[in-house]
Amino acid sequence: MKKGIVPCVLSVVFFFVGVFSCSAADVIKLKAANYLPTTHKMSLLTERFCQEIKKRTNGRVEITYYPGGTLLSPVKMFNGITTGIADIGVSHIQYTRGRFPVTEVFDLPLGFPSGWVATHVSSDFYDKFKPTEWDGVHMLYINTSGPLILQTISKPVRTLADLKGLKIRGAGRMTETLKALGAVPMPLEMPDVYEALRRAVLDGIMVDLSTLKYWKFAEVVNYVTPTWQLGTGITFYCVMNKNKWNALPADIQKIFTETAADAKEWQAALWNEMDIDGRDVFKAKGGQIIPLSEAEAAKWIKAVDPVIGTYKKEMVSQGFKAADVDKWIDFIKGRIAYWKAEELQRKIPTPF
Which of 45, 47, 99, 176 is exposed most, by the fewest CB atoms within 10 A? Predict the structure, then answer.
């Protein structure tokens, strides 16, 4: 009996070893990259997305997360995803001007009042128009920041005339808006901006309020002019390598889709939260906020109006129809009105 038990026990052991070995081999391993600092709330959100995928797939998918530009820089992110350096990546379209011409409509001063509203509008826009510029990847979710505001280190900007000649950081199509306002655009990558501000290589930056805390700009700028009336945002993407997406089993794809939809909602709420955080940190450090009067804001809006016309001409020169561009802008403005009303009805806190 004892001699018979040993082979039996060994057989059971080898059976389970084989099962577990097979299970380990079947785990789908992916890499996700993000250029944002490790402790930035958007970086933590991406990490949460990775963890949620593992949890919801019961460990069938494991995503190794590389934040802080450790795998891909923001400029190289999109190409890095298409070539397989990373399987999932987060960056924004202003780093690669011309690569996403249709989506660059969100770089225009169209009056986005908050990141919560802008994120829902950009998501609606993508779902409706499905720009072919994204065909090389699988879109997980798209989102747009709160309105960009002016931050300066030594010169308070109270009027449009005060901005003339100042060296202001701006990337992508934002450079055209800055030129229209009379500033000198400086397209630095965000990881280089803090030091450029500290050394006064830049006079300021035009970016969302959240950066005052999460990029620590409140330590080096002294004045904020809330130019939210222009309503220009920065549109971010979280995309996946197309081949890796196509290779996923259908049930895993469904989990990715559901988790990405949740992540978009997390991000929408996070934009408003981070902008409020940035404003509060800046005020606590003694920074001065200089609101534009209604009359002065109207001057700024009028100054940047030609930027929209220039974009339209550029798109027509690329083979798009002027009527299509008008359709995009009309759709966006309609969705801004809808989601702004929703934001108010849902009593979602906003920074402005």
Answer: 99
* 276 vs 250: CA distance, rounded Å: 40
Point out the residues of the chain with pLDDT beneath 70: 1-25
Q: What is the pLDDT of residue 47?
A: 98
Question: Does any domain span residue 128?
Answer: no
Percent of the chain with pLDDT over 90: 91
pLDDT at 249: 98
Token pair of 77, please? 């992110």
Is 45 contained in some domain?
no
User: By C-alpha distance, which of 58, 63, 104 is closest to 232?
Assistant: 104
Instruction: Confirm whether 180 is domain-assigned.
Output: yes
> Residue 210's domain is classified under what CATH number?
3.40.190.170
Strands (E), 131-274: 137-144, 149-152, 167-169, 184-186, 204-207, 223-225, 235-241
Distance CA(4)–CA(330), nearest Å, equals 80
| Count of domains observed in the chain | 1
Backbone angles phi, psi at 83, to 5 degrees: -95, -5
Starting at the edge strand that comes first in sequence, how are the strands of the sheet with 235-241 ordered? 61-66, 28-34, 88-92, 235-241, 137-144
Q: Which pLDDT value is given to residue 171?
A: 86
Using the structure block, give the residue that is written with the tokens 């038990």: 5
DSSP code for 310: H
Give the span between the Cα atoms of 229 and 113, in whole angstroms.
7
Q: Is 261 domain-assigned?
A: no
Question: Which of these, 148, 276, 143, 291, lies nearest to 207 by C-alpha position?
Answer: 148
Type of residue numbered 224: V
pLDDT given at position 1: 45
Inter-residue contact 311 to 97 (CB < 8 Å)? no
* C-alpha to C-alpha distance for 263 and 195, rounded to whole angstroms: 32
Domain that holds residue 315: 149-233+280-345
